[in-house]
Amino acid sequence: MRIDVVSIFPEYLAPLELSLIGKARQDGLLDLRVHDLRDFTTDKHRSVDDTPYGGGAGMVMKPEPWAQALAAVAAAASVAGAGEAAGGAGAMAAEPAKPVLIVPSPAGERFNQALAHELAEEDRLVFACGRYEGIDERVIEWAEEHFTVRPMSLGDYVLNGGEVAVLAMVEAIGRLLPGVVGNPDSLVEESHSDGLLEYPVYTKPASWRDRDVPAVLLSGNHGKIAQWRRHEQYRRTAERRPDLLEAFDAGKLPRADRTAF
Ligand SMILES: COc1ccc2nc(C(=O)O)sc2c1
To answer: Are 114 and 222 contained in the same domain?
Structure first.
């Protein structure tokens, strides 16, 4: 997968050079490139914002730098994509699918684990990090010609810009790519992988500050352990995220067990 991120604060994306995502980049599992929006300005002040039409507080990001930056990214990525799609030199170049352009925004669709899995299947993702009061809306309209545009939000709160949302989304998506996480089994039983929150985990010592690990986990009875873990998932989800439980089919657990917590 190739990911391009455009931002006026490229250094904000430095954490993506660390840990699992950083290693995935070094191992060639993820081709992630960060671009400075100011490199696509033409004035001596490298300006990227201006006052809002209609008045109001704050500034709005100018459309032309964004169009220049996104067109450059689309062109570069499509060259790479065409090569891949055509199976190398000599073959007829297949028309690559339009990259997905994710625009972090409080006015976007809510990002979640299902979307992380969906986006992890894409060949290319482009992220446009807004700042100030946002990006001139005409950029989003124009971008539809070159991208599948998806405004996306981390949650019902407002950040100062898109970079923090991109850090979270790139980590959530990148860790799902083949080979990034050492043991792919660890992706199976984590929160939201099956619609429920994950069960509690414990390690040595078996007794710590007068608190003992649940005895079932020391029993060696794998059937009982699986049953206990499943029950804990339901209990935690009911306590902390009843909204998820509503979305989760009650038919997967006999009614009698559900009333147990
Ligand atoms: C101006 O760009 C912004 C501003 C706030 C904001 N908040 C987000 C969120 O996901 O909460 S994304 C985002 C982008």
So the answer is: no
The sheet that has 148-153: what strands, in order across it? 31-36, 2-7, 124-128, 100-110, 148-153
Pick from 234, 105, 88: which is nearest to 161 by CA? 105
Spacing, Cα 103 to ligand 1 middle (Å): 9
Q: Looking at the structure, tell me whether residues 167 and 197 fall in a common domain.
A: no
- The answer to whether the CB of 104 is under 6 A from ligand 1 is yes
Q: Is the pLDDT of residue 255 over 60?
A: no
> In the structure encoding, which two tokens stand for residue 42, read together?
């033409």
Q: Do the domain assignments include residue 187?
A: no
Which of the listed residues 160, 164, 169, 170 should we mutate to test ligand 1's pocket, taking the one with most ligand atoms within 8 A of CB? 160
Per-residue pLDDT tens for 97-138? 889 999 999 999 999 999 999 999 999 999 999 999 999 999
Could you count the other beta carbons within 10 Å of the beta carbon of residue 60?
20
pLDDT in tens, 52-95: 999 999 999 999 999 999 999 999 866 655 555 555 555 566 66
Region label for 153, one of left (φ > 0), alpha (ψ between -120 and 50) or beta (otherwise): beta
* ipTM value for the complex: 0.94
Helix (H, G, I), strand (E, B) or coil at 216: helix
Same domain, 66 and 118: yes
Shared-domain flag, residues 123 and 214: no
C-alpha triplet 55, 152, 171: angle, nearest 5°? 130
Predicted structure pTM score: 0.88
Q: Return the amino acid letter for 21.
A: I
Q: 174, 203, 223 — which closes off a domain?
A: 174
